[in-house]
Design brief:
The protein is of the alpha/beta class. The protein has one domain: 3-Layer(aba) Sandwich (Rossmann fold). The protein is 38% helix and 17% strand. It contains eight helices and eight strands. The strands form two sheets. The chain has a six-stranded mixed β-sheet with strand order 3-2-4-1-5-6. Strand 7 and strand 8 form a beta hairpin. Helix 2 packs across helix 3. The chain starts with a strand and ends with a strand.
Length: 223
């Protein structure tokens, strides 16, 4: 069974990150600080023997990926593969909303006011379900819709014929997606109340059995 080594990087800081706005399928550009986030990640990963590189099809992820690829020793052989499977959670009509206001709306039906309160009481997947229910158009993704899309993306990586057992792969991801992965595959060892740092690196192992998270937000996952 093939096992791949994933380097999962959160994109650099954007203007919507700065303004505390929900940023799912919507997009804002990297700030100068966000470009620096990507450059630091590129330095850290420069000598990793990357065999493939993936990102979502949002510009903040693609721009981050290009900086990291350009700094990698294998840059001449790496071509960025983009896929909508790796987009952030879709927030529906809450896209671009203040995060605190959006999560207060999501938690209103269960008497909770913050993302942290919802996660503590119900888990990360429930935040998606509650936000979809609170969206007047119900366009926001619920947990089932979200995981169907993301799991197809990981299967796409596993099915890449150029990748062999033990190969290393870059994946540029998003804050809530990293939280979702940590909640589902972190075995309760990872704090999921707050988004990981922009430009932070998580090391994971991907196989047909799922994901194992080794480091998260630049820190080892403690056994």
């Amino acid at each position: 069974m093939k096992t791949l080594h994933l380097y999962v990087v959160r994109h650099g800081k954007t203007y919507f990150n700065r303004y505390n706005k929900l940023q799912g399928w919507g997009n804002s550009p990297l700030m100068a600080e966000g470009i620096k986030d990507a450059q630091i990640a590129a330095q850290t990963l420069s000598n990793v023997d990357l065999k493939a590189a993936y990102s979502s099809d949002t510009t903040r992820a693609m721009d981050t990926a290009k900086i990291i690829i350009d700094g990698n020793k294998n840059k001449q052989h790496l071509q960025l593969i983009t896929a909508s499977n790796f987009r952030e959670e879709f927030y529906g009509s809450f896209e671009g909303s203040n995060m605190d206001v959006a999560w207060t709306s999501a938690g209103a039906s269960v008497g909770l006011k913050t993302y942290k309160e919802i996660v503590d009481a119900y888990g990360v997947d429930k935040t998606k379900d509650l936000l979809k229910a609170a969206d007047p158009w119900h366009d926001a993704e619920n947990s089932e819709e979200y995981w169907q899309r993301v799991n197809q993306g990981f299967q796409r990586i596993l099915n890449n014929p150029i990748l062999d057992d033990g190969d290393s792969v870059l994946l540029i991801s998003h804050g809530n997606t990293l939280i979702s992965l940590a909640d589902r595959f972190g075995e309760g060892k990872i704090q999921v109340h707050e988004r990981p740092l922009n430009g932070s690196i998580a090391r994971m192992e991907l196989s047909a059995d799922g994901l194992t998270i080794l480091t998260y937000n630049n820190q080892p996952v403690q056994n």
